[in-house]
Structure formats: C-alpha cells, structure tokens
Design goal:
The structure holds two protein chains of two kinds. Chain A is built from twelve helices and ten strands. Chain A is of the alpha/beta class. In chain A, the strands form two sheets. Chain A has a six-stranded mixed β-sheet, with helices on both faces. In chain A, strands 2-1-4-5 form a four-stranded antiparallel β-sheet, covered by helices on one side. In chain A, helix 4 runs parallel beside helix 7 and helix 5 packs across helix 7. By secondary structure, chain B is an alpha/beta fold. Chain B has a domain of 199 residues: Rossmann fold (3-Layer(aba) Sandwich), CATH 3.40.50.300. In chain B, strand 7, helix 5 and strand 8 form a beta-alpha-beta unit. In chain B, helix 4 packs parallel to helix 5. Chain B is globular, with a radius of gyration of 21 Å. Chain B starts with a strand and ends with a helix. Classes of the chains: A alpha/beta, B alpha/beta. At the A-B interface, helix 7, helix 8, helix 9, helix 10 and helix 11 of A face helix 5, helix 6, helix 8 and helix 9 of B.
Chain lengths: 279, 327
Amino acid sequence: MTAQQQAPLLETLGLSREFGHGQNAVRAVEEVSFSVQPGEIVAIVGESGSGKTTLARLLLRLLDPTSGRILLHGQDVTALHSNRELREYWRKVQAVFQDPYAAFNPFYTNRRVLANALNVLGEKMADGEKLPRIKQALREVGLDAGEVLEKWPHQLSGGQVQRVMIARALVVGPELLIADEPTSMLDASLRVTILNLLKDLRERHAMSILFITHDLGQAYYVSDRILVMCHGRLVEQGPVEEVLGNPQHEYTKRLMADVPLLRGRSEWAAAYGSTAPEA
Amino acid sequence: MRIKNVRAYYAAAPDPDVKAVDDVSLEIHEGEVLGIAGESGCGKSTLAAVISLTAAPPLYVKGGELALDGEVLPLSGQVRPPAHWHGKKVALLPQRALNSLNPTARVRDFVVDVVRAHEPAMSPREARERARHRLEQLSLPPRVLDSYPHQLSGGMRQRVVAVVSTLLDPNLLIADEPTSALDVSSQKQLVLLLKLLLERGFIKRIAFITHDLPMLSNIADRIAVMYAGKLVEVGSTSQIVGSPRHPYTQALISSTLDPDPRVRRCRLEGIQGAPPDLRCPPNGCRFHPRCPSALPICTEQEPPSVGTGDCSAACWCLQEPNREAIR
C-alpha cells in the first residue's frame, strides 16, 4: 500500500481491557497499539481466546477499555459516551458479526432491519428516502432487493443473511468496517464470495476493513497487513507476505506450521523454514 | 466394511420427506481413513448417524445395509441393531464431542459408566485401569482421568473423548466434524491422535467427516465427496486434490484458501447459487442448477457413476460420448 504516509484512519495506543478483579483478573487485551490506514485491509489473527473479539468490541465502543486510547482521524473517541456522540462514531465505524442469525432479530423482516440501521444517521429519515439507500446497499452485496426485503432471516441461506448483514453496515456509508469472523459460519464455497465482496468494497469505496479471523488462509487471501494476537498481546505485525512468509515470533511460526494445507507446502514456505512434517 | 444403497430420510409431514442421504454406497478398507466431504446440508452428518446406528426420529432409514467383519446388518427402520455392535464394532466421535463429557463427574467415573454400559461384566477398577493404560500407550497424561472436564482445555477434552470412544476397540470409528470447534494447533494434535489409534490397531478404520478439505487432505487416504445427499465422487486423496473429475469437486477444491502466494495472486471464485431443497431435489443430476458445464441430459437423468468402487465419479460429462462432444 502507498497509504503509509497518510494520516491513519484509526489508531489505538496501549489499549487494554481487564475482566474481573484482583487475582481473578483476566487481561483479555493488553497494550495493543496499531493503526489502520484509509483503504487498507488489516487482518487480526489468533487462536480462540486470544482476545480478538474483545478487541473488536473495544474498537466498536461496545465495551470500555481499562486503559489506552482509540483515535479516529486523530480524535480521541475513547471518552465518547452519550448516545449522540456514539451514533456519530458508528456512522463511520460499522461491524459485521460472526453469526448472522444471532445478530438479527428473528421477528423483523430484512426491510425493517435495514431501515433501523439508518436511524444511526440521527436525522429522521422518511421511508421514501430510506428505500433507495437500502436498495443501493443490497445491490452492492449482490442481492436482489425484491427477493430479500420482505423476507425474514430464517428464510434466507447463511450466505445471504451474511450479505444482508454486510448491507446493513454499508447502508450508512462507513469508513471502517470491522468484520469479526464473518465467514466462520459459512461453507468454504461461500466463504470465497464473501471475501471477494470485502475486497471489492475496498476497491469501490476505498473503505478500510479490519478483518478478524482465526484462519490464516483467509487472512492471507484478503488482507494487506496482518496483526498476530496471542494471549491479548500483539506479538507480530506487518505486511502479510512478510509476516506469514517469514514469521519471527514463535507463536506465528507455530500457527503457520499447524495450518493444514490442501496443496501441500510450497517452495516459498519451505524456503523460510516454516515447514512441518505433514500431519 | 461396506455400506450399500443407504437411503435415510427425515420425516417432515405434511411436506415430503427430506431426502438427506439418497442411495449412497461406500467401502472402507482395513487400516484406511476415508474422508467424507461436502457443504453443510449435504447429508454428511446424517450418513454418520446412520452408519453409527444412532439414527433417531424424525430421521428414518429407508433402506440399505451395512457389512462389517463378514456380518451383514440391514439398516432399515424395523430391525434393531444388536447391542454388541454399539461401541464395540462401530463407535461415534460426535461433533462438539468436547461437550459430551459429564460436567459433574471426573473423567474416570465417566469412563466407568461408558465401558460398563457396553460390558457389564467388567469391574470399575478394570475399566479405569484400561483407560489409564490406553492413555499411556497414546502418550497422553493419565492424570486427566482424575480431572473434571472443566479443568481440561477444549483440545484435551476432545482427545479424551476420542480415547474413551475407542476404549472398546471398535472396528470402525466415525468422526463427525471432530475438529470444527478447535483451533488449528489442537486440530493437528487430534488428527495425530486418530492416526496413532489406527497405527496401534486399536481401531481398524476411520470415516472422517468434515467440510474442511485441507484438514482432510492431511489425514485421509481416500476422499468421498457428497452433494445434496448423493455421493458425487470418490477417489484417492491425491487424485481428488490434484485432478478432481466432478465439477462440484473441482469447484470445492478451487475455492479452498491456503496461506500461499499461489492463492493470493489469483482471484478465486466460489460456487454460485445455493444447495437445493432436499424435500424436492432437482431431477437428474442434483448439481445441475449450479453446474458450469451442465448438459441437456443433466436435467433429465441421473448420471451413472464412472469408474471402479474405489475411484469413481457420477457426472454425465465423464461419459465417453459426451466427453467427445465437449472437446
């Protein structure tokens, strides 16, 4: 990316979050500092329990950090608390969650879900104004508005609901999309289409995407830069080809070695010594 | 071990039955790991329930038979499988097996319950000793027997369940998505454990069911690919991965993401469309609505399978005259 010289879109400084008190305290996220440039796809990888989702919730301001700061366009957003301020923030930062069926109210039609999402824009919008935006967002994700709008989530397939979820985020025109394991509930064949969609969104709208996953293959396919998390800490970060091609930290090396590969290990991986005996 | 013409449907009255497994025949040789792959809803887990003799309503077996160790067992609903088949001939390592331990009992007490349910003659002490010995043979720490499930990590619990379910030396182990809830490092350890079980001869063959093709390519000797209740292709792992013949297998393989520059440089394509409604599956080949190379005949007649039992594919494109036409 040539975005290195630009001012970062999002930046975190020493972000930490503790759960519990005293001896039982669990440091889910510890001293995490990184930045996301405009138009960049950054992947966060790590095992289950490494603090990826907690980090996503902190960045979405759904959870308050114990210490540290989050900057959006250089402005501190850690102290935002009023509904009005947070709405303002959520216009710029939107999320796609892991389980689309759990994220949607099963009693709401997709039209209602998408219309409600627009309320984050603050001003009262007439239904007539909302509809074109909703249709536009659905077109972006490759869905036919006539086909999905009047349906309930359970009437759509997993891949379709996940697209509606992405449309829900897009409808407000965010600058940063935080996608927390958006593909882990989907089949391999659908995964690729969702990942391609994320890539296309970046191309079309210069949107930044923070892609959280435990799957190195997906992170490698979609992202420009990668952050590796282990026990709440960022242990390695950098351009994806450098980090996965030549992992420095023990943890990254182990992750790379443990990933089962379909096509076998290439000379590229072998050259960097990240090979493991075939399991 | 061989299954023949297995049909298993879910009763869904007043709708027509859901034909989750339709006319599937398979063989698993001794010492072999057979991978069964496919998308969710393709009938993999239903097949697992049928061969592990745990089918329960609304699932019912319409027909088919299971041959194992020279004995033939008809699978259809009316016949109850003899008790000594469960656990001793056929064992199931279920999906999310790590949650199948009893949370309020130590693992050793759970082991006693399981073993004595199948072999009432065995004393609790014998059962515990057997488990301890087995854990040592597999170089797992025997102290897990004294732990409660919550004291063990997810990966360890999964491995413990794998050991417990094979304590009675079943001929066939059916592993139904055993790795889906684990992270990559635990996945690898579980796979190594299953291979060790096979090597040491505690079990004779494994049916490994998953949607994770990279994982499968590292454990399976042969892979069977299912789509919409049908078996579309069977072949050796290298053949399936290297030169898949059925269009569905080709699409599955090409949408797999390896962390490898060869994958990053090109744009992969998923499979368009969605799997069919199994209450009324499409006529002819069930993949034809999504198939890029569908022929007119695909919409009318079911494709016969081409090749021998160990390596076959069911697609009209593979029939000699059509192959000529496509060229």
